[in-house]
Each structure stands twice: as structure tokens, then as C-alpha cells.
Amino acid sequence: MKLKYISFFLLPLLLTSCRDNNTIDYSKMNLLLLPSGAPTITMYQTICDNKDNDENVRIETTTSNIPSQFAADNFKYIIFDANNGLNQANKSGKYTFLKLLTGGNFHLVRLASENEYPTNEDYILGFGTDAQIPNKAYNKLYPDAPFDYSFTDGVSALLGVLKTINADCTIGDNSNIDKNEKIDWVFIAQPALFNLINSEGNFKDLYNPQYDYEVRKLFNEKFPEFDYIAQAGLFVNTSYYENNKEEVEEFLNSVNIQLDNAINHPDIVANTMDSFSSDLKVQQNKFGFNKNIVLNLQKDEINQFGVVDPNYEFNEEDLVNFNNFLNS
């Protein structure tokens, strides 16, 4: 009886100890983790506000490092590929989808082909894995003309190869691509395309704007029920959200202002980037692009970064429906 009594007495203490070990100290959580490139335009002000604290707002150049963070409690917010992010969030149960940030900066560019659109006779380069949105969205448009090779390391790997393209549309020394194959089509994203067109090399001479298709428009024409191709999504740590709803609301208000400025006031974005550093190389290294690219790609509301209208309603159910459509 004595042993049983002692065990019963200690049980509440043990349970309390377990709860304490699982309690999150929100003051020690970093604010934001996001990948380098297009998504940073949606957080330009937040990044600049944390210019002296790289850990509080961490821009990850190796996107494969991000998924594991969905299983931890290190960041209040994570920006990631919406499809994969939702899968990671569902596995861990630690994060909740909050908002769609970018929805269509893909471009399909004709090079050597004489066809108006891709066919199964063409040689096509893309980026991403079979499980990622670039491949899935493209395959919905052209199921009979799949990528001949896709750079699973992302658009930056594709960009690096295309900078070496020859004048006859072949690629030089690359173990993944037959050196005798002429590249007919390229599936790429902004701002990588802008970078290519304005870089030294043969691509700018091969590029014909008449055969540069915005994939978001092609997708909407074929599937009018979708206004955007869901790309970067904002996720919030669920525990933090449940206990700090006013702070989350304030952050969302800030995000909406940044989205609106990215679409309608690129000059504000550019000036804010200058406050981070007026050195264009520093801007490039930090954001993945510099202010001149922003001014060119976002002028006159052309929105080549594919920033989502802050008033656009798109919840987790919408994301699930979109992913189910891509997988069907």
C-alpha cells in the first residue's frame, strides 16, 4: 500500500514535469524562415527590419534544409512551397497554413523548336522534382510532352546550365544532358528568366519574347477555376498561433501591406531595399535579386513575381483542392 501511495502522489508531479518540458518559450522562437528568391519580395520590409539579426529572419539558400523545420518549434513562421509545406505541416502537426503569397511566376520559353507549343518530339528542360508544383502544373498543361530533364536542385541549377547554352541551342559539358540535343523549350521562373536575358551568353540572342508564355495565364485559360498556381505559402507555428492571435493578426496586416506594395508600388519596395543596402550586389545576395529587377518585373502592375493579391481568399481547403487537382 505504501508503494502504491507514493506512486499515486508522484504522478501529478511527473505529468506536470512532462508538460513543462513540452512548453514552448515563444520569446526564444525566431520570427521567420524562408527560401531565397521570389518569396523574399513578399517579406521585403520584414527582412529589412531585421537586417541586423539574420537568425530572426533566416533566408535559406538551400531549400532542402527547410522541411525539417516543420517538425521543430524554432520559427513562428515558415514560408515554403505550399504543397510540400502542407504535407510537412500535416506530418508534424506543428504548423498551420495561413496564407498564399505567390501564385505563378513560371514561364515557358521556346528556343529551338518550330512548334507553337511543346510536343513529345521536343526536348524540354524544367526544374523541380516530380512531387513539386512546377512539374505537376506543367504536366497538367502538356501531359503528352513531359520534361526530358528536370533540375531537382531547383531553378538556380537550371539557370546555371542555361548560362552556358551554345548558339545552336545545345548544352556544353553537362552529364545530365546529351551534348547533341538541341533545347527546344525551357520551363523557368522569374526572376531567373530576367537574369538570363540580361546576362552575358547566348541565351539573350536565342530568346524571342513572342514565344515567352506566362504559365499562369496558360493555366487559367485551360483551367479557369484557378486564378493562381499555388506556390509559396505562409505557415504559422500552431501553438504560437493559438496563444498569440493578436500578434499573428498584426503580422498578417504587415504581410498584406507588403504584398500590396510588391504588386502596386514597386518603388516602395526598391526604396526599402536601398535602406538595407544601396549596393546592388548586397541586395542580390540577400534577396536573390536587386531593386532594378523589382522595378522591371513589377512595373505597371505586370507582377512577374506572381505575388498574390492580399485580398484574395485562399484557405487550406482551397490548397488541398488545388493539390488534389494536380494529382488527379
TrEMBL record:
Organism annotation: Candidatus Onthovivens merdipullorum
Entry superkingdom: Bacteria
Protein name per Swiss-Prot or TrEMBL: Uncharacterized protein
